[in-house]
Design a protein that fits this description.
mainly beta; Jelly Rolls; five-stranded antiparallel beta sheet; 3 helices; 18 strands; ureidoglycolate lyase activity; RmlC_Cupin_sf; ureidoglycolate hydrolase activity
Length: 256
């Protein structure tokens, strides 16, 4: 549900960095094998029990598997929603077509314009790519939350310590990451983020299984802001919020 338009008075261009667990930690969790070299065949259950592997690893399936129990978290906060309507677990699929890379202003087609940010104040949201192609890429774009003001007074959000709160996105501190097909991502409850941006050749897609909670109350399930040109000097062209994709991550991608 669109709740605000946020004017952008100056162009903002950032370059996406590789998605890592530590870099993304303020916004949620990166879900990937935290120790790919450690396999059941070369890691004794006794070593796992001693805590030699991260993320709460335990030996499972009679020693034929390693289970990482603390790989990510899921949160259902609809008990704190104003409507009082409970949320239910949802599993959906997003088939995301590859975005066409365009230019920020006459140069090489190297990035994507960000026009919308959204958040889910009462639930975490996990995107799991269904692909065996580790070369596939997608963009994860997030923003911190500003301190609340009168402008966002009517937006419902949980009153709980440690959550972003009900403020609007801090667009000037936007962060962008390039994720691979071997990584899933969980947005923490209340984290402002762009809709998923698949990258790749023309007409290619990435299928995501999405896991979250929802109660079907629009303003509680999803809040969107539109990023609009707020400049007054038309001769300089539109002010844009722009994410550049590094060259190594955009070979063979569709461009205008």
């Amino acid at each position: 549900m669109l709740v605000r338009t946020v004017p952008s008075t100056e162009p903002l261009a950032i370059t996406a960095a590789p998605l890592t667990r530590d870099a993304f930690a303020p916004f949620g969790d990166v879900i990937a094998n935290p120790r790919p070299a450690s396999k059941p065949s070369n890691t004794a259950p006794e070593a796992i029990a001693r805590g030699e592997l991260p993320c709460g690893a335990i030996s499972a399936n009679q020693g034929t598997a390693i289970q990482y129990k603390a790989i990510a978290s899921m949160r259902d906060l609809y008990g704190l929603a104003p409507s009082g309507k409970a949320g239910t677990a949802r599993m959906t699929m997003f088939v995301c077509g590859a975005r066409t890379l365009v230019s920020a202003g006459g140069g090489e087609a190297d990035g994507v314009q960000i026009k919308v940010l959204e958040r889910h104040p009462f639930t975490s949201q996990t995107f799991i790519p269904l692909t065996a192609d580790g070369a596939k890429r997608y963009l994860v774009v997030v923003a911190p939350t500003l301190d609340p003001t009168g402008e966002d007074e009517g937006l419902p959000a949980p009153d709980e310590t440690g959550l972003p709160g009900r403020g609007l996105p801090d667009v000037r501190r936007l962060k962008a990451f390039v994720a691979t097909g071997e990584q899933a991502v969980t947005y923490s409850a209340g984290t402002w983020h762009a809709p998923m941006i698949a990258l790749g050749p023309l007409h290619s897609t990435i299928d995501f299984v999405v896991v979250q909670f929802a109660n079907d109350v629009p303003l509680e399930d999803c809040q969107e802001v539109a990023l609009e040109d707020g400049s007054k000097e038309e001769e300089e062209g539109p002010a844009r919020v722009w994410v550049r994709v590094p060259e190594k991550d955009r070979r063979g991608f569709a461009r205008l």
